[in-house]
From TrEMBL:
Active site: 186, 328
Recorded catalytic activity of this chain's protein: alpha-D-galactose = beta-D-galactose; alpha-D-glucose = beta-D-glucose
One term under GO cellular component: cytoplasm
Name of the protein in question: Aldose 1-epimerase
Phylogenetic lineage: Eukaryota, Metazoa, Ecdysozoa, Arthropoda, Hexapoda
InterPro entries: Ald1_epimerase_CS, Aldose_1-epimerase, Aldose_1/G6P_1-epimerase, Gal_mutarotase_sf_dom, Galactose_mutarotase-like, GH-type_carb-bd
Length: 364
């Protein structure tokens, strides 16, 4: 039996769209196995995932903050948030749509757009559409012209939990004009526990079911070329120790790459990735209907070895470089500028439908 309860996460939050002061609501989904998930209406954000290890000990395995100030801080690297209207990068903040040039905001060094711009879906106050028997459904209406994008987009995200420890996230959207839509969830995971840091991360094993990666330039902007992973440090089709793989990548800071997922037609879903943490026994499998996944090893969180101050997270945790990993299911980055990539254009009458399942378990 899955239980859903509601509480107030914070009061006095100013909605960036309406300028109204509103409370931020929190929903806790819990099942009989001891697993629980917390979601807040700010950014349709997953703030906590607690799951047992092989000995039955619960720990929170996703990074986040205890309070509103943390989530509103410039130091927040999108912990757990729903990202949109277009996740990842848009080169030069510009693209052509049906022959017309569209200019969108450039929130990264005035060079390109990242994760929807200055006020993306992660900063919206999402409305509660429905309390479900096993979760919650939220919605956000993004106005025509916001961050430069054409069309009014109505998006919904539902979060549901199953008795067998599956967190199912379903992102849907419609638009009244042609516009790109590419949503993702930006949870940061550490199966050793959210406080375990880089040492915990290096103990993980990672497997990604991908035939290629989208080649990028120094700003992580795709060139348009897809590089096959065979014989490279990006071939993660066989489970590999993540610490060793990160050493192989040096001098690169770590993984921050879109992997092209291998599907088995006509199946609409693919096994995207599996991460395991042998010391605790915890594992995470990711299944999705999206063609890509951004595998990111928190390379740009503060580098404390260089004297940078750690991000203060939940329960006083110190979050720093390589303290977590992300598996952001998505269409390919900068698809708006590459006709050979899966299209992100959403047209009136069409339905954007992105499903991702995070299944947690333990190896005995």
């Amino acid at each position: 039996m899955v239980h859903v309860t509601e509480s107030v996460f914070a009061t006095g939050a100013v909605n960036p769209f309406t300028k109204q002061t509103e409370p931020i609501r929190r929903f806790t989904l819990s099942n009989g196995d001891g697993m629980s998930v917390q979601v807040i209406t700010l950014g349709a954000t997953i703030t906590s995932i607690k799951t047992p290890d092989a000995r039955g000990q619960l720990d929170d395995v996703t990074l986040g903050f205890d309070d509103l100030a943390g989530y509103q801080s410039e130091k927040n690297p999108y912990f757990g948030a729903t990202i949109g209207r277009v996740c990842n990068r848009v080169a030069n903040g510009r693209f052509r749509l049906d022959g017309e040039v569209v200019e969108v905001s450039k929130n990264r060094d005035n060079k390109f757009q990242l994760h929807g711009g200055f006020v993306g879906f992660d900063k919206a106050h999402w409305d509660v559409v429905a309390l479900l028997k096993d979760g919650v459904k939220l919605s956000h209406t993004n106005p025509d012209g916001h961050e430069g994008y054409p069309g009014k987009v109505t998006a919904t995200v539902s979060f549901t939990l199953s008795e067998d420890n599956c967190l199912h996230v379903r992102m849907m959207a419609e638009s009244d004009k042609p516009t790109p839509v590419n949503l993702t969830n930006h949870s940061y995971f550490n199966l050793a526990g959210h406080k375990a840091g880089a040492n915990g991360l290096y103990e993980h094993s990672i497997e990604i079911n991908a035939y290629g990666i989208t080649e990028t330039d120094k700003d992580s902007i795709p060139t348009g070329k897809i590089t096959l992973v065979d014989g490279t440090a990006f071939d993660l089709r066989v489970p590999s120790n993540l610490g060793e793989r990160l050493k192989q990548l040096q001098p690169a800071r770590g993984y921050d790459d879109n992997f092209c997922v291998e599907f088995d037609p006509p199946q609409p879903f693919a096994k995207v990735a599996r991460a395991t943490h042998p010391p605790s026994g915890r594992w995470l499998e990711v299944v999705s209907n999206q063609p890509g996944v951004q595998f990111y090893t928190a390379n740009f969180m503060p580098d404390v070895e260089r004297g940078e101050a750690a991000i203060r997270g939940k329960s006083g945790a110190a979050y720093a470089k390589h303290g977590a990993f992300c598996l952001e299911t998505q269409k390919f980055p900068d698809s708006v500028n590459h006709s050979n990539f899966p299209s992100t254009t959403l047209r009136p009458g069409d339905h954007y439908n992105h499903e991702v399942i995070y299944k947690f378990g333990v190896s005995q």
